[in-house]
Amino acid sequence: MHSRLTECSMFDSYPLPACYDELLTADHQSRFPTVTERLQQLSFSELAQRQHTTEERLRDLGITFAVYGHQDGTEKVWPFDILPRVIGAEEWQTVEQGLKQRIYALNLFIQDIYNEQRVIKEGVVPEEMIRTAATFREQCVGHTPPAGVWTHITGTDLIRHQDGQFYVLEDNLRCPSGVSYVLENREVMKRVLPEVFNGQAVASIEDYPERLLDTLLATAPVGASAPVAVLLTPGVYNSAYFEHSFLAQQMGIELVQGSDLVVMDGYLFMKTTRGLKKVDVVYRRIDDLFMDPRAFRDDSVIGVPGLMEVHRQGRVTLANAPGTGIADDKAIYAYVPAIVKFFTGEDPILPNVPTFICADPVQRQHVLTHLEELVVKPTNEAGGYGIVLGPKASKAELEECRQRIQEDPRNYIAQPMLQLSTVPTICGKNIEPRHVDLRPFILLGGMEMEDIYVLPGGLTRVALVKNSMIVNSSQGGGSKDTWVLF
Amino acid sequence: MLSRVADSILWMSRYIERAENVARFIDVNQKLTLGFQRGLRTQWEPLIHTTGDEKQFKELYGNEYTQENVVNFLTFEDRNPNSISSCLKFARENARCVRENLSNAIWEAINKFYLIVKEFPRDAMVLQHPHRLLDVVKQQSQLIVGAAETTLSHGDAWNFSRLGRCIERGDKTSRILDVKYYILLPTVQDVGGNVDIIQWSALLNSTSGLQMYRRQYGRIHPQKVVEFLVLDRLFPRSMHYCLIHADEALRALSGSQPYAYANPAEQLLGRMKTNMDYLSVDDIVNRGLHEFIDTYQRQLNDLGKLINDVVCNSSLHSQWQHQLQS
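Predict the joint structure of the above. Result:
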């Protein structure tokens, strides 16, 4: 399958990194010859021109994200690199199976935690871990959401280590974002690189909005005959507002803000020009804590007073259900392989990154003595905030990190510093390796394995800064189209 | 449609129309300046009165009504909430809030419009020769109207955008007429006196109405110009036309029966329109054009508030007001 590159190819001078490269093998052979052949029919300057066209196109389309603490309108165009990240169909099948297995188990785990708590009784997860999790919601105890679905939408973060193996880095079971960029990236790619696309069997992703809508409607409360779904956004200044508006538009549902909704007579309604209209399913893109000032933070101005009670009565579906964050806690993460085994009876197909739990005295001691080799993460943050990279941190930063761990050990975990794989990327006048991760999106429309859909590929985020492994868009990250190639 | 969305679409549309009209104001003034050698002050000051932003202008520039100051104030000045660039910022912001209700063609047109003006070179050359900028503004605005016409379902979103556009346009045409009339004919006795053909042509031109006027009336006559810009039923920028079509849009939204109204906004608009249906230009001139225009503007202002109130606080359908739809 691998083929030697032709002479004078654009990848000849590609500086192979020490880690795994997604396109080229260590002896400079293409893993996906049909793709590289097509790409090499274009000159570099032609490719650079296409890259430029792409950026203009994204700007015209207003495909942006907001950066907090930025002047001038706070919007930035989503950085996008046109060289695709390719994954072989066979390998993808394994990833897909692994994700299905994991989401199936995690959904059952959340149901169990808020109800029977068998995982605690049977010693799979220590009670202490659950009790002390910031994301555990008292308000959800005893609750079963419609159709038994807690995690309607998941965006699992995967990375490929030097050994060529995919690892699960984070589960993202709350409001994972990025799928709109997956869909828009594909549209832009079809437009700017049609000749590379042509004749390749790239798995299609275009039906995602339809499937998402299906998932939302399939989990509507029992008795809602023609259920109405809406997407709840914190508003136009949220960093993911583009995505909220894009998904609502693609699904043809209303994009609502908290002030558009009102609870009356035990049901949820939206305020329309023709009076109030009943709402059955809310795809909410705001955090649990801001959703209902009566149930959670009373200073929330973006929430809907009384929403939680309607939810508890089973009269509205919230996707994802409040309370899913418990399975997203980075300390609970360490127990997911055991959770998968417990609920499926199988060994996990996708491995975890080895994780040290600072709440455990023995493990904490190990972390404190190996700080300069490890990555330390807060257990309840997203977006790359609060992470300390041991090998890159200064003495002072390490010392500060050490203190924080000692003050609040439950809030920290540590992992070995994994190498992210690279993908060839257009950088100025050259093609250079840049580190990437992968966020596939998983939809869960019921409690069974068959109710799970995995979007082929997902979001490939790329750290555009040389040697950087931080792929978050808020910190210099961009994205690529991801091809699952049959 | 969500009440908030309805309000945003209406304002999105108003801001686009406002930007276009500001471009028209400057354009006609610019053309006049080229033809005359009068003092700059008399040429550019009225423009600020047309838009009604004297206070804001004075705070920023004092009494320096130079071309550079006035054109800058009306085009690029971020501190003027009615400058072209501010209008586009607000239009885009509103569009962003309701993007899922619009077609891609409209969103893209608005986003591009905003970017073009935002990135237009802002130097002395442009302020002295703003033609290219003004042409672009007018074209882009028309592009958006065209995109709405051809890609947006002619339902609620379309009707709210039409409603906003008609209200804004009616108001702006009345302002153009008011200021020019005041300058051209300072006293009542002057009506029918010596006519500055060029000035009146410029007035018609600023509404893109000169050719249509010529086809209908031929020679320029002040009274006829007033009749054309106030009462014409078919010219899309006339004050009457704007009421007819705003009324049509509002009725389509509420679904009210003929000879009846469903909400206070519809009641006021119906009265305004019907009144104009049966007016003659003599009625207007005898009563005083300025007073007439003043009433028109005040009523449009009230109408805007009523629409906002009806849309946000109750329902367009009086009979459904307290009913729940399921």
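Chain A touches chain B at residues 59-62, 236, 241, 245-246, 248-249, 253-257, 259-260, 264, 269-278 (CB under 8 Å).
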